[in-house]
Amino acid sequence: MATPTSAPLGRILGCSLLFILSAAALPAADLLRISPVTDRILLLEFGEGHIRYAGLGENWQTANRIDHRPLDLERATDPAHYTLTSPNDSAFGENGETPVHLGRKSKGHLFHDLYAYNRGDPDYLSRHSIYLQLPHPLRSGKTYTLHLDNLASNSNHWLFTFDEAALRSETIHVNQVGFRPAGPKIAYLSQFMGDFHHGPHQNGGLDLSDYEGAAFRLVRMPDGEEVFQGTLAPQQPKTAADSAHATDFGPHRNFSNADVWEADFSAFTGEGVFRVVVDRMGASFPFRIGANVYREAYVTAMRGIFLQRSGIHREVREYNDLVYPGGHRANAMYYQPNRMRVESGPQDQIDRSRPVTDIWGWYHDAGDWDGYQHSHWSVPAALLLAYHLGPEKFVDGGVGNRWKHPGDAAWVEEAGSGRPDILDEAAWLIEFMRRARQALIAQGHGTGGVPAYVGIDGGGPTGTTSWTDTRDLVLHREDPGVTGIYAGLAATFAKALETAGRPTAEVDDWIAEAEAAYTWAKANDGPSEELEYGAAGLYFATGDPSYQSDYLGWRNLGMSWDTWAATGSRHHAAFLYAILPPDHDHLDTEAQTAQRQRLAEEARNLWVNPGLQRGFRATHISSFQRNFLGIFSTPRTMMAAVAHHVNGEEDFARAVQFAADYTLGGNPMSQVWMTGLGWRAEEQPFHLDSWALLDLDHPVYVNPILPGITPYGSHFTFDWFGENYQHSGSEDFSRSSAHPVIWRKTGSSHGGRGPAWQNPAQIPDWAPSDSVGDGPKNETWFPAAEQRFQNRYSIAGSEFTMHQNLAHTAFTYAHLMTAPEVFSSYDRPQITLDGILGEHVGRQALQPLRVEASDDVAEVRYYRDGRFIGSSADREDRFAVYWRVADHPVETGATVRITATARAWNGRPTLPTEAAERTVTIVDGEGAFTPLESFEF
User: Fold this and answer.
1) DSSP H helical segments within 243-312, as ranges?
2) pLDDT tens per residue across span 201-246
3) What is the mean pLDDT of the chain?
């Protein structure tokens, strides 16, 4: 192969695939990446375009703008359209070889609005993975070119060197945030390849038996020094059951439908940024090893909670200090004495005879503007539990939130409040509950209780946001159960303030508030399961034996711990009682010992032991849990954390760690289950305010979502819209985009949208016949752990709540922090397109694209009018990609926009900037760069 005279071969090949692009004549999908699954299988990823989603004031069901470039699936699934050649590997040679087998895995990647089909638009844009099994293994250090037969309009020839240390492999899954030096450190190897079914790779599962004992290396970045070496080992076969639940999880009740192997480097205790490199396979995403590595995850999770606060302007420092406006503070609010614990009805059903004022400051849920004190109380409860388990880790300024009231000039700086930031957040809802309780008394509407519901349910499809919604708000009647819980929160908060060194008068004031609320709740026949938390909290804070007596009289050691939300008021009461120190006043040590033993037993049997035996050690999933809201996405670890605190068993600590590993990227999708964090962050939760607030209106960037959101993520079948999944908010609608097919109950109406479940082309030949149709099994050939569809309209897949998701996420990463640290700026990588790209580009040139980059940049990607050109990780050559201009479908004289984007080592992306874009005109000639004819394939 001849090489361009403008750059030596070694630097062209550098650290990544080189994109030398030759385009198809007709618009088609973009080829986004080629990467090794192993040395015998290549993965090609195709994208079908871009959606510019509706922005502020636009109807989010009709105003999307879509650029759809479908993949020709018939041709893309024919091995004859792929040829691999090599100048220095004789097994492939100049004439090349075609794949011996091929498989496909597809799913909806960007989903369109509800009325797309009425306009002839597609319902969604897919992301397709094509797996090519090669006739011979790739050889390390050898150069290859994959030729495509006009399958993609942005590339026909991909030149790469098979360098395992440079090429990321989708087979390797790792916690993208990182690990503590002394804890377990494991990367997982696994891959479900869709309808691939050939040789040892049966039913879509990658077989890695040939790699047993293969070497892996831990490589430091960016200098590439090898610091540790180990060997691969099997972890779990795909025939092993991950769940005791009889349905929802496909063949064998296995989450991943593929064998899982592991690379264990726990013995390495050094610090820095690293990648796992596996011989004959490739490399992982980068990650960090450090003493306080979970701090970024903790701060991001806490920011997610903060940004759900209602009624205030919030500074969004992650997006250039954008202000997230506060809504509802000036809206009229009315007390509803006959309603409790239900969403507000239509405006014409509001009783406006009892107006109330000075009640503000609850939390929103996803697309709703209302607060549910009967569930949201678990947010401060979780944060207070994290604090009491390790108060030394939390400092004032640890998160550094800033906010202000609408109309005020001054910002409230929580850094400098005199209390750790985790207590500032814990105080938010507790102070609202006190404010509401006291306002109702003062205005003649209450006698001392806390309401269970406040606000108004969500906005609508017309683009209404929380700050543009002018509907009246409601406040429901006093709730004895919620008031009992509030008593426990106020007392536990008082104890935290005492621990943090706050003035005695402040502590005493909260104790008095807790006692008054508890007395009212008991007098008004509050439910015992909610009064338990009030009694436990007051005993925790005061040592008064009467509260211990109340608690022990109500507690039930035989209660179920296997709840889908994982914690309730009884669980939190048990946590408080279990963590009391032995010298606590009047402590009944026998009762506490029984409680601790019961808690540890349940944690071990329901969560820890089943989780440690799973392929990806998903310890955050109960053994009997269904594929339900938040099962894979949310790290529910409170039981394991408390159990470790009280008995010190290492398995409990490992369980918390492994849950975080899973939700931070060590899972079959390499998905970080939270927005704003990691290389493959969650992208499309259902969050109406984000859709309008962060409207980038850009052909490359998808409008981002506010950080710190953990979505539901997965749901076993249709949701509350029913089986008819014509509605884009149904999970069956999301699941209709999957290939191989996901089982659906016969009779589901498709309304002409999406592939029918009985379509033979969607059912692999190897699929078990008893898994199709009306059978009792809810079987799927698409792994349950990969059933996250980035459908922003899906309620059961993409919505989230404070208590089911965000509270657990924040607790887990708060608990894993190890040292106090104040907030540091949320810097993003910075790039500037190099001046070598002038105003004119010769059509017959091989045009270099380069950037000047900040030190934290790890990868740069380039686009032409939103069409992917290529990517590079070669810092030595300033992240160069070489663009064959003539092979792109642009005419001489055309004006095109070149865009560069970048990722830092921690995966944090750039935002659009003028410096990273350039408008150029295509002219005839070679310009100043290498003529095309000097480059031969």
Assistant:
1) 295-306
2) 998 999 999 999 999 999 999 999 999 999 999 999 999 999 887 6
3) 88
| Residue 82 CB-density burial (10 A; 0-12 exposed, 13-18 middle, 19+ buried) | buried
Nearest to 70 by CA among 22, 117, 128: 128
pLDDT band at 571 (very low <50, low <70, confident <90, very high): very high
Residue 775's contacts (CB-CB under 8 Å, 6 or more residues apart) are none
User: Span 70-79, mean pLDDT?
Assistant: 96
Say how many residues make up the chain.
Answer: 937
- Rounded to an integer, what distance in angstroms lies between the CA atom of residue 678 and that of residue 823? 18
Distance, CA of 894 to chain centre: 40
Q: How far apart are CA 355 and CA 443, in angstroms?
A: 9
Question: Scanning the structure block, which residue is given the tokens 């060194």?
Answer: 501
Closest CA to 779 of 796, 791, 794, 763: 763
Task: State residue 753's pLDDT score.
Answer: 42
Helix (H) or strand (E) holding 424: helix 421-442
CB neighbours (10 Å) of residue 931?
A: 15
Report whether 354 contacts 445 (CB < 8 A).
Answer: yes
Tell me how far apart the alpha carbons of residues 154 and 21 are, in angstroms, rounded to a whole number. 7
Burial 214-236 (b: 16+ CB within 10 A, else e): bebbbbbbbeeeeebebebeebb
Distance, CA of 220 to chain centre: 26
Mapped onto helix, strand or coil, the DSSP state of residue 158 is strand
Q: Which of 779, 630, 626, 797 is nearest to 721 (CA)?
A: 797
HSE at residue 824, side-chain half, CA atoms within 13 A, is 6
Nearest to 286 by CA among 902, 859, 829: 859
Rounded to the nearest 5 percent, the helix, strand and coil shares of the chain are: 25, 20, 50
Structure-token pair, residue 331: 């809206």
* Closest-CA residue to 530 (of 516, 510, 550): 550
CA dist 515 and 518 (Å) reads 5
pLDDT tens for residues 646-690? 999 999 999 999 999 999 999 999 999 999 999 999 999 999 899
Q: How many CB atoms lie within 10 A of CB 583?
A: 7
Contact of 935 with 846, CB cutoff 8 Å: yes
Task: Say if CB 636 and CB 620 are below 8 A apart.
Answer: yes
Question: What's the order of all strands across the beta sheet hosting 857-864?
Answer: 840-842, 917-923, 895-904, 857-864, 867-872
3-state secondary structure of 226: strand
Name the residue type at position 380.
Answer: P
